[in-house]
Amino acid sequence: MKIKVCGMRQADNIRQLAELQPDYMGFIFYEKSKRLAEGHITPELLAELPASIKKVGVFVNAATTEIQATVTKYKLEAVQLHGSETPRQCAEAKELGVEVIKAFSVDDRFVFENTLLYESCTDYFLFDTKGKEYGGNGIPFDWELLKNYFSPKPYFLSGGLNLENVKHLDKVRPKPDGIDVNSGFEQEPGLKNIADLKELFSQIRSK
């Protein structure tokens, strides 16, 4: 199972996380986010990361030109579109030569069939909890809802994951291809608890 750690922005914290070898490391480029990476990270810092760690830029309803400029500046390998982007916008991002992760906000009214429109223009889906913010709300959604997901498209499970509830991931159906963690492993917004992440990596990778 892939592990994606999102909301990184402090240099020492980024380097410490890199030692754990996550599959993906996420940097938020949404100016209203309290985990905004722009102004805190540099291209040189991201260039230090091992090639095995895919650098992900997280955007919310951003213009393709903005996404392209950021991908080029930081040499990102993937983008996560976390707003109300259309399939066409996802296809435009895909043409930039990066992986595309389309996030969906899930509650008990979410219609999983709507994801079918995005199958051809994305690499992964990401299911997060619908809340006040575009991600990082720290609240899990009812995983039983995923039984309504019938697409073969691989997905990341997100939304309030922590050391306690990840113990029950083996009960989730269909099985997620990866997990995306953020606020459940923070000391403060943008600063991750490395000790807790070590425990998470041990739990996930020992299975």
Automatic annotation (TrEMBL):
Similarity comment: Belongs to the TrpF family.
Catalytic activity: N-(5-phospho-beta-D-ribosyl)anthranilate = 1-(2-carboxyphenylamino)-1-deoxy-D-ribulose 5-phosphate
UniProt-listed Pfam families: PRAI
PANTHER family according to UniProt: N-(5'-PHOSPHORIBOSYL)ANTHRANILATE ISOMERASE
Pathway recorded for this protein: Amino-acid biosynthesis; L-tryptophan biosynthesis; L-tryptophan from chorismate: step 3/5
UniProt GO molecular function: phosphoribosylanthranilate isomerase activity
Protein name: N-(5'-phosphoribosyl)anthranilate isomerase
Keywords assigned by UniProt, alphabetized: Amino-acid biosynthesis, Aromatic amino acid biosynthesis, Isomerase, Tryptophan biosynthesis
